[in-house]
Amino acid sequence: MEKHGLHAGEGEGAGPQNIGRRSFLKGLTVQALAMAPATALLGQVAQKPPPPAQSQRRRAPLEASELRGIAGRGKKKFVAIQIGARSFVDEGVDKCLDTLRDKGGVNALMATVFTYGTGLAGRQVHGEPLPDHGVQSYDRVVGGSYTKVHPEFYSESTVKDIRAPELGDFDILADVIPSAKAKDMQVYALFEEAYNPRMMPNFETVCEVDGYGRLGRDTCFNNPNARAFLMSMVSDWMTNNDLDGLMWESERQGPLDNAIRAHFGSASPRRSSINCFCQYCMSKGRDQGIDSERARKGYMELDQWVTRTLSGPRNPDGAFVTFWRTLLEYPEILAWQRFWNRSQEEMYGIIYGTAKSIKPQAQVGWHIMHLITMSPFYSADVSYARLMHVSDFIKPSTYNNCAGPRLARYIRNVQSTVFRDMTPDQVLQMHYEMMGLSNEPTLEQLPTAGLSGASVGVETRKALADVDSQIPIYPGIDIDVPTGLNEKRTQPSDVKAATLAALEAGAPGVVLSRKYAEMKLTNMEGAKAALREFGAL
Predict the structure, then answer these.
(1) Range(s) of the domain holding residue 408
(2) How far apart are CA 233 and CA 163, in angstroms?
(3) Are 405 and 447 in contact (CB under 8 A)?
(4) Nearest C-alpha neighbor of 118 from the set 174, 172, 196
(5) How many domains does the chain fold into?
(6) Helices 39-46/332-358 angle, 10° precision
(7) Is residue 114 part of a domain?
(8) Distance between CA atoms of 324 and 226, rounded to whole angstroms?
(9) Element (DSSP H or E) covering residue 187
(10) Pairing of β 108-115 and β 186-192
(11) Rounded to two decimals, what is the model's pTM?
(12) pLDDT tens string 493-518
């Protein structure tokens, strides 16, 4: 146990001297390969050389006594909460920390250091009921960095001016870490891919380019300028703050999933953003033996197929047959999907290597977006077993409450494209079978019922099996994530059931999500009730 609270990923009583086998032997050959295109940048931006590459080796599973220590009943758990700077400004740092500990049993902060979105920053989302704490009014999120930006770390980055303006000089790291440490709370830097090109000068130098030549709103994983920008931020935060670790939210999926509308957003017949076909991706794809131009043409054909399927009459051969025929005609479509996902994993490796080169004991992990619990397409893309070699922990977003309306929309989306030959109810039952879920609501019931707490245990066990219990899995527990006013709303019993399911499945901790500013304290108490019942307080 470190001086200030549990060390993420370690059992109670474990100390820095025990970190070696369980957290630093990471299969660094994988990391080194991922970092190869940016090795020079790493040395310049981090101002330290990367750690020497070691031969890739799979870590041995934790011993039975170690597993009991981090996952068993009666043992203290890692209980983190995602929180933005606005909450500390509104409620006061010390008062806020005391509330988190007393109401939710929290011992770690996932402090939002960078975002241009309202999901992690600001108060409650406009139009949603205000929670039972904090300032009782809405605010405006401009976004950017909520911690000080040290210019010397951005000398190799084309994007530099990112300081969030709305909270003045308040620094979510410098102004919070000392108080958190004094209360035995860890602090992690939480940052996400939620950009605003209008607020970020030179964003065009780092962004994706879709198959139609349009500039995107996200960075390209293969663009050296984008890599330098992310490395600059990580180097700045890790060098200038006493952080216990960091967590990155890359809530994106590959071009195939986006093209077939395998998401819970709107399924518009308008052409989708199919990324990325910028000069860096096209060149790298060719180097890897992919016909990059034919991949682009294949995605254009697929996009046209989706438009016809969404808005036209049923094809005599059916939707799935014609979909599969397109894949057979253009095998480059799948090759490019795999290429995109491996590029994302390279970015994980670069972030991991940058942080570790500065603070080897820091715990670096990843938020895996909510589609992991509902989309077999996305689930196939995400391999916890591959990620574990550049991870100290993984947080799958097992959000069962807001999953009700989200899953219902997802099912209707994919039913309108690749599964148009089936009814929506048939598609839902097929997905339940593929995702290992049983006794869950019907499609009609889903929006108001949500998924059961047991569904959290299903994904937790799956993730732990994939990593062979070699790194911690911290399931995300959703508390008051916004849904429609007539859709599923979180109750204390929901939070308790989900938290208990995660712990019973073997998780050594949880992450209370999405952000404190939208959570009701009465619902947070459900997590503490679960910890108490599990004997973890």
Answers:
(1) 16-533
(2) 11
(3) yes
(4) 196
(5) 1
(6) 30
(7) yes
(8) 34
(9) strand 186-192
(10) parallel
(11) 0.88
(12) 999 999 999 999 999 999 999 999 99
